[in-house]
Design goal:
With about 90 residues, the chain is mainly α. The chain has one domain. Helices cover about 65% and strands about 0% of the residues. It is built from 4 helices and no strands. α2 crosses α3. The protein is elongated and about 55 Å long.
Amino acid sequence: MDTLARLRRPILIKGAGAVKLTHPMRRFFWIRLRMFLRRCAGGGIVMAAWFAFGTAAFHYVDGLPVSRALAVALYVGYTPSGLWELYSFWAQC
């Protein structure tokens, strides 16, 4: 039997329940992705709160429509106001 063919087959160990996956990198990718998301959850919540605050502030203080306020809060739009100067300054700090 070809050595490469033997290496490609999954390894089954009776009683131990261990199975060698044919693509272990996929499994490790999902494990690492979950660990990364778990560690970054607090930062994601802070960023979402910042953008929500910015959207509400631009909507109520500057009187922009919600869609335009969201665009400005996400830094894809611009509005010439003092609030914009303050919001962009604090975001850079």
